From TrEMBL:
Transmembrane segments: 21-47, 72-90, 111-128, 140-157, 166-187, 193-210, 217-232, 315-333, 345-369, 381-406, 418-439
Protein location: Cell inner membrane; Cell membrane
Gene Ontology MF term list: sodium:proton antiporter activity
Gene: nhaA
Chain's role: Na(+)/H(+) antiporter that extrudes sodium in exchange for external protons.
Catalytic activity as recorded in UniProt: Na(+)(in) + 2 H(+)(out) = Na(+)(out) + 2 H(+)(in)
GO terms (BP aspect): regulation of pH
Record-stated family: Belongs to the NhaA Na(+)/H(+) (TC 2.A.33) antiporter family.
Keywords (A to Z) from UniProt: Antiport, Cell membrane, Ion transport, Membrane, Sodium, Sodium transport, Transmembrane, Transmembrane helix, Transport
Protein name: Na(+)/H(+) antiporter NhaA
PANTHER family on file: NA(+)_H(+) ANTIPORTER NHAA, SODIUM ION/PROTON ANTIPORTER NHAA-RELATED
Record carries keyword Lyase: no
Main location: membrane
Length: 443
């Protein structure tokens, strides 16, 4: 029985990475909140201007005539955030192949909800910004910050059913797909076609390696760095290299779980028997060979996609995203900024996130269920879907990221960030209250 339970635990750990994803994202939301508050405190302290100007300092690398120099802020937003998008791409691919988006029945409700959660906020924003400097900002209120949203869910503890957490996660993943498409198709500068051709060549090599079942992840990562560089030079936003690379990573393990268990059991039995023969003089070569075989089995039973997600996700959740927030959330909140809060740009963002997100998620979910193209889990009520709709209004990381692409004027960018902070705060509080009222403690 003990062996069976151990096998089941191992099986769940290997086959259900979404549970680990939710746990990591939830706790990272708390870390993200801390660094956001720190950035706001420092930006509005006596060292505020120095804190903000620090991120504009340049550094880089140089070999002969070749040089690559960027500001700290650009290295974070264009460099480290490419790793963030790489992990997002791995999550998207996993969910499309084996997770909650792998079948029409499972994916229909999150797809309906996410489409509504992107379309309605964008339309609300456009309604307030048909002309002027804010016309490019319609992508800002479309985004959802899953780390913050799940961080609030964890504060509610056992009140929240697992199916509701997974629904919110699935909606956010579909939302990420939409955000990537918007960035690729709309928020792209002038194209340098030569570098884009280079990028296409690298991408063909990556897919060729995938088709040849090459599972050496170092090869993919090295080519991914080159892909990032040529996209940076091409005018296409460099972070998209992360998504593109993730799609080429092999998603199948070379050995299934039951072969893994059987092979390792045989190795351990033989190792135990050999050790029992000569307890005082163990065969070092045999031990080394057995341990190496077990290690090889452990590598082969987990796909390159899962290994890379497991490797990078903690770094993204606990370092890269908090660092992004620390560098970007430092808005100086003064009278001049607060007086602009009712301007079209900020109103469009605030209403788009705070009203448009929950309205879009709830309304499109309801329509999908009513026309029988989507199925609502029986343990989830409509009030709870409204609650996670408000949590979807926490735009933060992705909204900040899109703001950087949409607005070049520093004052307009500060206003957009301030509006995202206001909308995210009210959305989070409202979602928390609704879910606390309509979610009972789970046994």
């Amino acid at each position: 029985m003990i062996q069976f339970l151990k096998r089941q635990k191992l099986f769940r750990r290997i086959k259900d990475p979404l549970t680990e994803f939710v746990r990591l994202e939830a706790f990272s939301g708390i870390v993200l909140m801390f660094f956001t508050i720190m950035a706001l405190v420092l930006a509005n302290s006596a060292i505020g201007e120095s804190f903000i100007s620090y991120w504009t300092n340049y550094f880089g690398v140089q070999f002969g005539e070749w040089t690559l120099k960027k500001s700290f802020l650009h290295w974070i937003n264009d460099g480290l955030m490419a790793i963030f998008f790489f992990v997002v791409g791995l999550e998207i691919k996993r969910e499309l192949l084996t997770g909650g988006l792998s079948s029409i029945k499972q994916a229909s409700l999150p797809i309906f909800a996410a489409i509504g959660g992107m379309l309605i906020p964008a339309l609300i924003y456009v309604g307030f910004n048909t002309q002027g400097s804010g016309t490019h900002g319609w992508g800002v209120p479309m985004a959802t910050d899953i780390a913050f949203a799940l961080g609030i869910l964890i504060l509610l503890g056992k009140r929240i059913p697992t199916s509701l957490k997974l629904l919110l996660t699935s909606i956010a993943i579909v939302d990420d797909i939409g955000a990537v498409m918007v960035i690729a198709l709309y928020y792209t500068s002038e194209i340098d076609w030569i570098y884009l051709v280079y990028g296409g060549g690298i991408y063909v090599i990556l897919w060729t390696l995938n088709s040849l079942k090459v599972r050496n992840i170092s090869v993919y990562l090295i080519l991914g760095v080159f892909l990032w560089y040529v996209l940076l030079k091409s005018g296409v936003h460099a972070t998209l290299a992360g998504i593109l690379l993730a799609l080429t990573i092999p998603a199948r393990a070379s050995r299934n779980l039951f072969e893994f268990i059987g092979s390792n059991q045989e190795l351990l039995v033989n190792l135990e028997a050999k050790t029992a023969e000569l307890p005082n003089k163990p065969n070092e070569k045999f031990i080394q060979a057995s341990v190496s075989s077990i290690e090889s089995n452990c590598i082969k039973v987990i796909s390159p996609l899962q290994r890379l997600e497991h490797m990078f996700h903690p770094w993204v959740a606990y370092l890269i995203v908090p660092l992004f927030a620390f560098a970007n959330a430092g808005v100086i909140i003064d009278t001049e900024l607060t007086n602009k809060v009712f301007e079209p740009i900020s109103i469009g963002i605030i209403l788009g996130l705070f009203a448009g997100k929950p309205l879009g998620i709830f309304l499109f979910s309801w329509i999908g269920v009513k026309i029988k193209l989507a199925q609502k889990p029986s343990e989830i009520c409509w009030s709870q879907i409204l609650g996670i709709g408000f949590l979807g209004g926490i735009g933060f990381t992705m909204s900040f990221f899109v703001s950087q692409l949409a607005f070049t004027d520093s004052e307009v960018l500060s206003l957009a960030k301030f509006a995202v902070l206001i909308a995210s705060l009210f959305s989070g509080i409202t979602g928390f209250i609704i879910l606390k009222l309509f979610c009972k403690n789970q046994k």
